[in-house]
Write a structure and sequence with these properties.
mainly alpha, globular
């Protein structure tokens, strides 16, 4: 079975439709290929690193220190590592843990800000993210939701549209007095947040599908880190969107 994906993160030469695993990798035996259990283990390790790193900026915020430098710096470095991994997946063994650490600095800082404004919101967002992950995993595992080519195309198109909208809104708000529609707590803003959360959740199905097909194609061992990194990126996005939605709902009370 040859794999052809539209997932932006997974769409590299390592996941392209060809008969080679990678341009410079030769699969020799099972111990050198990607496995589901190996990807799961690495995903858990990345989660541990992210939480431990998040605790640093979280603690700084609650001890009276300003964590913004680490928060912003962590987000920038994490983005750079993702871009490198997209083109150089063979280095994922180093890039994925690094991403988890630097993204954790961002998550800890941003979570502390939301928690101060809306006490209890972080545990709610974490719970919503976990439940969404488990529901999507169950739907995929028991093939209630099947990842077809049309499904992939729709999800990727929606994801790119959201990314483009966020980017344009951010640029306009920086240089003009433009107020993005998704800001504030209006019903339209809440509706947009719900839509974005749905799309983020649907990206989990793409992640599951790519990991499964990577195993079927006997891709090299380092792709476990790459698959885990892709899954973590989606979970972080989903968590942040839940924070945004819950803060909008809380501000309406």
């Amino acid at each position: 079975m040859i794999m052809n994906s539209n997932n932006p993160f997974f769409k590299t030469k390592s996941f392209k439709e060809n008969n080679e695993v990678t341009h410079d990798a030769v699969v020799i035996d099972y111990n050198q290929t990607m496995t589901v259990s190996g990807t799961i283990n690495k995903s858990f390790l990345m989660l541990i690193l992210l939480v431990a790193s998040a605790a640093v900026t979280w603690t700084m915020a609650y001890s009276g220190q300003n964590p913004m430098i680490f928060t912003i710096g962590g987000a920038i470095v994490a983005l750079i590592l993702v871009l490198i991994a997209t083109f150089k997946p063979q280095y994922s063994g180093f890039l994925a843990p690094g991403y988890a650490i630097f993204e954790g600095l961002f998550i800890g800082g941003i979570s502390a800000i939301f928690e101060v404004m809306y006490p209890g919101i972080v545990i709610q967002a974490v719970s919503c993210t976990f439940v969404t992950f488990m529901v999507c995993f169950g739907l995929y595992k028991y093939q209630i939701v099947k990842v077809t080519e049309r499904f992939k195309s729709v999800v990727v198109a929606a994801t790119l549209a959201i990314a483009t909208y966020y980017l344009i809104s951010w640029l306009l708000s920086m240089f003009t007095s433009f107020q993005p529609v998704h800001h504030g707590n209006s019903l339209m803003s809440i509706g947009i947040s719900v839509f974005v959360i749905v799309i983020a959740a649907l990206n989990l199905f793409l992640d599951f599908d790519q990991i499964e097909k990577g195993v079927q194609q006997k891709m090299p061992k380092y792709m476990e880190w790459y698959g885990a990194m892709g899954l973590m990126i989606t979970l972080v996005w989903l968590y942040i969107e839940f924070l945004r939605l819950l803060s909008k709902l809380s501000s309406r009370d």
